[in-house]
Design goal:
single chain; 26% helix; elongated
Length: 227
């Protein structure tokens, strides 16, 4: 997979290292990149340019990329990069960093954003997830599909402890995609039984979140944390 990352700060470089370690091809674009920054991620390709300029994106051959990540520290720049990637180059997938949570409402398909990631919101969600059992926590949203990834830790007292996944009727448009048990991820099968303390990861819609929490933790007052 070819990934182009706009913004070679600490966030962009960290993403690049993870992708490179997984065998993907990465190009970093930054107008202020220097030899010191490039030496921190030597396996990546580098382009010294302003990612908000069409000529720079043409030089980066964005039309050949599978994913574009707008990871700069400027929300306006991230929106421009996402929009150009979609409208001018037809990039299949765009991921944009939201620096100021007040700007989250703009990061949707109208600006070419498929997935918006707000670090402050994500940190808040993860903190709440770490201390709250039975609370539904929204990890992030798939903006284009209007779906979300949510997490709920199954209380020990839940009636679903010991139940087979195949015996549970989940709310409409809800899919159980993973279980984290004792810090290890599990790909759930219909024969797997749930245990108290399991962290259940779902893909669902906002309309079904309250029903999902009432199903798994009816004694907990519904409260969704947005990432």
């Amino acid at each position: 997979m070819r990934v182009v990352i706009a913004g070679a700060g600490s966030v962009g470089r960290s993403i690049a290292r993870e992708l490179l370690a997984s065998g993907h091809q990465v190009l970093l674009i930054d107008k202020d990149a220097d030899d010191v920054q490039a030496s921190r991620v030597p396996e990546a390709s580098w382009l010294l340019a302003d990612a908000c300029e069409l000529s720079a994106l043409e030089e980066a051959r964005l039309e050949e990329s599978d994913v574009v990540v707008a990871a700069t520290g400027d929300d306006k720049a991230n929106l421009v990069v996402s929009l150009l990637a979609k409208t001018e180059f037809g990039v299949p997938r765009t991921v944009a960093r939201v620096n100021n949570p007040k700007n989250e409402w703009m990061f949707d398909e109208s600006w070419g954003v498929d997935v918006a990631v707000s670090t402050p919101r994500l940190m808040t969600a993860l903190i709440e997830e770490a201390v709250s059992i039975g609370d539904l926590v929204r990890i992030f949203e798939f903006q284009q599909g209007r779906a979300s990834m949510v997490e709920i830790t199954l209380p020990d007292r839940s009636e679903f402890v010991g139940r087979r996944i195949g015996d549970v009727t989940w709310p409409e448009d809800t899919v159980l995609v993973a279980i984290i048990r004792r810090q290890r991820p599990i790909a759930p099968t219909l024969d797997d039984a749930m245990e108290g303390g399991d962290e259940l990861l779902f893909i669902t819609t906002s309309e079904q979140e309250a029903d999902l929490q009432r199903l798994l933790a009816p004694d907990v007052r519904p409260r969704t944390a947005h990432a």
